[in-house]
Write a structure and sequence with these properties.
The chain has 711 residues and is of the alpha/beta class. It is built from 26 helices and 18 strands. The chain has 4 domains: 61 residues, no CATH class; 236 residues, Alpha/Beta hydrolase fold, catalytic domain (Rossmann fold); 56 residues, no CATH class; 208 residues, no CATH class. The N and C termini lie far apart (135 Å).
């Protein structure tokens, strides 16, 4: 019995162990099922998250799903679109060529060897060919998009009146208009020899594929302001030097065409190109530019017995301030040596087109952060590409290496300042007579929410920071702030070449005639004593123009100058230096235009951190016209009473024309405007008395608000 009982107990234990193993197996399978369920649930949730993210990407500004428009950004749309556009451009550039008949010699061989070609159905394709040619003929060639049939039109009209060339004409282009070509024979630059480094498609090629070497060739030596080691870049010569920037983008060619229609050619027409990178003083030192131009004008007068008409555009007007409007270089005994009567004897009239008389606001922003309206108002994709390819820091470094462009800084009212470098620590109070102060600017409109007098401003989030010196700044304060953010070499360059003040004392104005640093500033020198000379100010109005800026700040970084730290040290009025930081810490604060700030509901409108004002799209109205309608009407700056005629052209572009057509007054496109060409030809052909003043803006009202007098 005992053995049977023991066996029974063993069988029961065995069944229990078996059941326990089965239970454990079931438990393992259940856990696997649970894990699979969890994994499925995670995959489902991940899919839902991706779907929600995709829907969010497709949302419009109003918060509703906009998948229809989102489809246009997908590869399914963009890829076939690229193929279609490529085929279209191919048809534009490739002219159709008729299929020729079988050559006679080949026909003889085929008939001799009894080779019969298969006959094709006789299909008359002549109608199709006619329609195809009509279609392709209606599509303008890509390089002729700027032509609208107005070529020579103004000149032909003047010639029909019996008008012909009366006075020799000299054309002075503006900044970046003149093409620059390489003359370096150094091994690293030899492949560029006689190639355009600025202007033309070669420049585009080099910027795209060889940016570092291109920048090295164009940058000037920071100490001398002349050519760096190994590089030699010079201004192109002849009328073609500034007729077009690249093929199809004309600059002076329209004016040249119309002048040619009234009998002008290279015997009585001269385009005076110059290396706009150089300071005006170095233009004479390196290139003898002003000596050559003086000789050219004297040659015209000697050969033809007529005075010369000077026509300038943009910064070219400032070049004339240096040489021929104020004519100080020509008159000064130590420079041109022409004497006080040279201008009266050689210059008939000056036509200033879109002249930068009182400077340009974008010059400040470009030197400070390498930005301007054109860069911050690009779409996000273009902005990203530009920043990755040609960053703000690189652009700023390139701009600061060009002393010539500093001539168009806004003119501020630092009167008799001891030193521009010392103005870093001597912040003069008051002033800002031209561009305004913290409460007022001459060109402020009624109900303005923020004054243009604060040239650089920060939003409240930045203004409340504890950083010293951060706040809204007038033009005078902004100039000092920019210098704090630039290398010492740039500060010295500006000090030794330019002056941006205002001088009200007539005796001091006469003394300034012998100080070349004053000659680019119409507020610090007088017009020449030439009673018979006429001066025409012609510029556009009606296109929104950058006038002032909202800036923001970022992290600290290392740079070649100290910023936002210790003040500059001035041992005397002519010896100021900015010391290096202790331990060389990163003390330069990044600053840039606050492109995220847009508010078009206020006045002035704010677009991407740029406060918009009046002007021609590039130069503000104050700079274009204040001297013409008020400053040069005063004997203090115009002792001979030279007649100044101001003509404002309204900006009325044709939407279907790439460059605006006959009635545009954009800063560059105005050179092709019918009204401007008529004015230039009237002055050149001896009927300048027909040019009458015309105003379409409030410039006379704005100019009266400028503090011309010390009271």
């Amino acid at each position: 019995m005992t053995d049977e009982a023991t066996l029974t107990r063993r069988r029961r234990n065995s069944r229990a162990d078996s059941d326990s193993a089965v239970d454990k197996l079931k438990t393992g399978e259940e856990k696997k099922d649970e894990l699979r369920a969890v994994a499925d649930e995670l995959r489902k949730e991940t899919k839902e998250i991706k779907q929600r993210k995709a829907r969010r990407l497709a949302l419009g500004e109003d918060g509703e799903e906009n998948s229809y428009w989102h489809w246009f950004t997908t590869r399914r749309f963009l890829f076939p679109l690229g193929i279609i556009v490529g085929l279209f451009l191919g048809f534009l550039f490739i002219k159709p060529v008729d299929i020729p008949d079988i050559p006679a010699s080949l026909a003889v061989i085929l008939s001799e060897y009894d080779i019969a070609l298969p006959e094709f159905p006789q299909i008359d394709l002549s109608r199709l060919e006619i329609e195809w040619r009509r279609l392709t003929g209606s599509i303008p060639e890509i390089w002729k998009l700027n032509n609208d049939g107005r070529e020579f039109q103004v000149g032909d009209q003047m010639a029909s009146r019996g008008l012909s060339a009366e006075f020799p004409v000299v054309l002075v282009p503006g900044v970046i208009s003149t093409g620059l070509e390489s003359w370096s024979t150094s091994p690293e630059y030899r492949t560029f020899f006689r190639e355009k480094m600025w202007g033309g498609f070669h420049m585009v090629q080099q910027v795209t594929f060889n940016k570092e070497k291109w920048m090295a060739a164009l940058m000037l030596d920071p100490v001398t302001g002349l050519d760096p080691d190994g590089a030699k870049v010079r201004a192109a010569e002849g009328i073609d030097a500034a007729s077009s920037f690249i093929s199809g983008y004309w600059i002076w060619s329209k004016i040249v065409e119309n002048l040619a229609a009234v009998n002008y050619d290279t015997n009585n027409l001269y385009l005076a190109p110059y290396d706009w990178r150089l300071s005006f003083y170095n233009l004479e030192v390196r290139d003898g530019y002003f000596s050559k131009l003086k000789s050219m004008i004297e040659g015209f007068k000697k050969r033809q017995g007529k005075k010369v008409v000077l026509t300038s555009h943009s910064m070219g007007s400032t070049v004339l301030l240096y040489l021929y409007v104020h004519f100080k270089w020509v008159e000064a005994p130590l420079y041109g040596g022409g004497g006080s009567e040279w201008v009266e004897n050689h210059i008939e009239a000056v036509v200033s087109v879109a002249g930068t008389h009182l400077g340009v606001a974008k010059a400040i922003s470009s030197f400070l952060s390498g930005e301007m309206k054109d860069t911050v108002q690009m779409n996000p994709v273009a902005t990203y590409v530009l920043e990755r390819f040609f960053s703000r820091k690189e652009r700023g470094r390139l701009f600061r290496s060009w002393p010539g462009t500093a001539s168009i800084w806004v003119k501020v009212s630092l009167v008799n300042r001891p030193s521009l470098l010392c103005s870093l620590v001597i912040h003069l109070q008051g002033g800002d007579a031209v561009w305004g102060n913290h409460d007022f600017a001459p060109d402020d409109v009624e109900d303005a929410a923020h004054t243009h007098g604060e040239l650089i401003a920060f939003r409240e989030a930045v203004k409340n920071t504890r950083d010293v010196g951060v706040g809204n700044m007038t033009a005078e304060q902004a100039e000092a702030w920019v210098l704090e953010h630039t290398p010492i070499t740039f500060q010295k360059m500006l000090e030794t070449n330019y002056s941006n003040g205002i001088e009200r004392d007539e005796e001091q104005l006469r003394r300034n005639n012998f100080d070349h640093t004053k000659w680019t500033n119409p507020l610090e020198v007088q017009l020449p004593y030439a009673p018979s000379m006429k001066y025409y100010c012609v510029y556009g109005h009606g296109k929104e123009t950058e006038r002032s800026y909202w800036y923001t700040r970022g992290e600290y970084e290392h740079d070649d100058t100290l910023a936002d730290a210790g003040d500059a040290v001035c041992t005397n009025s002519s010896d100021c230096v900015t010391p290096r930081a202790p331990l060389d810490l990163p003390l330069l604060r990044q600053s840039w235009i606050d492109a995220e700030y847009t508010d078009e509901s206020v006045s002035p409108k704010i677009r991407n951190g740029v406060k918009m004002g009046e002007g021609d799209g590039t130069v503000s109205l104050l700079s274009l016209g204040a001297m013409c309608v008020e400053g040069w009407k005063r004997k203090r700056w115009n002792p001979a009473g030279i007649k100044v005629v101001t003509v404002e052209l309204p900006h009325q572009p044709i939407p279907t024309m790439p460059r605006g057509g006959a009635n545009t007054s954009d800063h560059v496109d105005i050179l092709g405007a019918t009204a401007l060409n008529e004015i230039i030809l009237k002055v050149a052909t001896g009927v300048g008395h027909e040019v009458e003043e015309r105003f379409v803006s409030n410039i006379r009202e704005y100019a009266k608000r400028v503090r011309w007098d010390s009271d």
